[in-house]
Write a structure and sequence with these properties.
Helix content: 55-70%
Shape: rod-shaped
Strand order of the largest sheet: 11-14-15-8-16-17
Number of strands: 17
Distance between the termini: 74 Å
Largest sheet: 6 strands, mixed
Strand content: 5-15%
Structural class: alpha/beta
Length: 710
Amino acid sequence: MKLIFKYLKPYIILVLAIIGLTYAQVQTELALPDYMSNIVTNGIQYGGVTSEVPELITEKDMNTLTVFMSESETEKVLSNYVLLNKNETVTLDKQNIILKENTYSLINDEEIGNILLKPIVYIYTANQQNIEVNNVNIDQVKQELDNSLIGLEDNYESMAKLQIKEFYINVGLDAAKVQTNYIIKTGLIMLGISLLSVVVTITSTYLATKIASNIAAKMRKDIFEKVQSFSSSEFSTFSTSSLITRSGNDITKVQQLIQMMLRMMLMSPLMGITAVVKVMRYPSISWILLVAIGVIIGGMIFLLIVAVPKFEIIQRLVDKINSVTREFLDGMLVIRAFSNEKHEEKRFDDVNAEQTRIDRFISRCLGVAMPIMTIVMNLLTVFIVWFSAKAIDIDAMTIGDMMAFTQYAMHVVMSFMFVSVTFFMVPRSLVSVRRIKEVLDTKLTILDPDNPETLPEDNGDLCFDNVCFKYPGAAENVLENISFTAKPGETVAFIGSTGSGKSTIVKLIPRLFDVTEGKITYCGKDIRNIKQLDLHDRIGFASQKGILFTGTIKSNIVFGRDVSDDELNEAIRISQSQNILEDKIDGINEKITQGGTNVSGGQKQRLSIARTLAKNRSIYIFDDSFSALDYETDKKLRNELNKLIEKTKSTVIIVAQRISTIKNADKIIVLDNGKIVGMGKHNDLLDSCKVYQEIAKSQLSEEELNYARA
């Protein structure tokens, strides 16, 4: 998670904004059940009455109330009212009422609510039971009413509001209009809260998506730049298919995790905790919710224990299936040529079946979770209605409260459901985070020096001084005591049997690997003390495998560099690529498919050589890059290359299998098992080097050998 927090750091202000918006979203969503409860209870059940103290009450009804109060209580209550005369006009709830009798109007309700509550309840109960209230038998009436109210203390407010509704009707208030006004007013408030909730939800989702997308883009960029700095040693640690999966599938999962963290993982706990606090207002039935939460947590823990270990296996299998698919597509023609389709199908089916099996297992685990949650939610609703109905029956709870509690309970359950989904996704995403971190934390074996040396403008000697090299983790050297000097304007060629170390030597020059022992100097400076960029700017490299990129012929030759038209045309001419352009409808702007599959091997090599020559370099390295050329093209290309060398005094390093390609080189180095067994010109080596003689005899006729010695 440290990696995620590192990438989140620049967005701390936006993250805080999301937290604030999420809190606002939770509060707005959880405010709606209370308003809905008010509509049902105060609006429908109580006719729009919200207070236990009547704002208007006729003198007759007030006199009835005072029967149940002491003299001091009566005095205090009346001091908070003003008596209005008959036919006066008063406004209540936007209604103008012409009083039909003397009426008390409330001027201050402080400290009289507790005094009025019990008398109003007495009157409501007396009316329900048809008990006549008067001063004569007041003690007997109070005793009778108290007996009927035993156990109903929690319902006093409800009974008071119902009675106050009758007081208002007696005053002449339109009760239906009061009710309608209250419902509309509360409904408009709910609508406003809903709109606010929509706004904060959209805003927070937008910000979370933006942050997650930006972080994913930054991660892809960082991985790409990191891989660009890999040497061949680091590339041996990660397969190509694994790097593709890590920079694609894994980063997508991390993006989903970040978005989920900023939305679901923030909202669910806030929603759950706030809803639980609101649920605790109903202690008589809140135990039902606690039982449901316990069942959910138990099931979630069980599924986590079973499913989480499979997540890392899935990602490894994704790597493997990518690798098998990539090999199949790259080698499709070879597979068909050997009629080996069935074998490759089996390889793919084995990996695919294993991944499918584990995917199904995880899907079943996640699939079980949803029905369990649904059953728990439905049972929870049933139990809430069952036990709430009993409370409503004895007036210990209102229908609105039951509806509000049900919604709060659903919010709590949904929050735990989101948390359970999060717990499933987080471990799987953390596997991807760890895989990305492995790439980003890979220590580079080839680094630029802290104080790099500067190369002179002119070309200089390239010297191998007793160089030894072995691949990382290998026990033995593949190169032993390699020493030679390539001077400006010279062509140095390497030849030898397969595996003798030819390509390894030329890979050491641009520091694709670093020497194990000894040193390589250029212009008298150890190449390890030169910045890689400066060194690479002096080198043109054509690898064994001619690699072309998606684009055009021109884009492949210039390869993103600032190449003038003269340099471009010169590179095409020297590499003998003119006829390639002549055969194409669009000429130099002809499209090249991915990997150069729409050109032949020889054309691919010539275009790769043109790319190498397109910018003037001090050192040109051709790693067996003439192998696909016919002899005539090879000869013409070498002749033009020699003219270029004479003019630019560049150093040319050639690795070849054909003697005809290198026989005119200034220096031929013969390798055998990683050691130099011969060095000199072609004719000299024919006389002095047994390995070279064997290679020559296998490629040249007796007449050509005799001619060479003459």
